[in-house]
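INFO batch 0412 | record 1 of 1 | parsing
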Amino acid sequence: MTVDLSFGPIVPALARDHRTIGIELQGHGHTADSERPMGLADLAGEVAAVLAHLGIERADVCGFSLGGLVALTLALQRPDLVDRLILASVDHRPDHAEFEHADDPEVARRLPSGEDFRAMREAFVRVAPDPDQFDAIAAKTSGMVHALEGWPDRALLSIGSPTLIIVWDTDFVPLAHAADMLRLVPDAQLAVLPGITHMEVTRRTAPVLALVEAFLDRRH
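INFO prediction complete | emitting C-alpha cells
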C-alpha cells in the first residue's frame, strides 16, 4: 500500500488544521524492503525513529489495517510518544482460520477483490524503489500478519491514550472483537460504519474524516 492509496482523499483535509505526516512502512510505497524479517515491533520502532528524527515528542497516531496494528504496537511499546490513538480495522485477537475459505461468498465479499489487488500493484509500481518486488513484499507482509496471535487483555488495559476504534460491518474484524476492545481500552470510543468492506474505506472519505476530525478536536 501507499499513503496516497490508503489516505489520499483524507490527508489534505486533515492537513488544513493538523501537521500531517504520512509514513510508508518497510516495503510499502516509497520505502524499500529490508532483508530482515518483518515484525510489528520493528515497524513500530521505525515509526518512533521517524518522530525522533523530526523532533516530535508526542503525536496523534492513526493507522489502518497493518498500519493500525503498528499504531497499537507503538502505543504499547512507546506510550510516551502517543497522544491520541486511532485504530481503523484492527483486531486485537485475530482469527485467521475464517479467511482460509475464500470460496465461501460470505467470506469472499470481505476480502480484497482482483480490482483491489490491481490498484495496489499499480500504486506500488509507480513509486517503489524496486517495482518488481510487489508479490514478494505482499507475501512477506501477509505471512507476518497471519502469524500474529494478538494481545492479551492486560495489554489493552494498559493503553493510556484516548483511543478511537473504527471498524466496518463487512470487514476482517468481528464486531464482537471490536466490542471487546472498547471494553478493555480505558478511554476508548467505537464507531461501526455500515456497508463498507475493508478496501472501500478510502473510497468513503466523508464518514471516516468526520469521525477522525471530531475525535482529534475533542481535548481533555
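INFO post-check: The two ends are 34 Å apart (CA to CA).
INFO record closed
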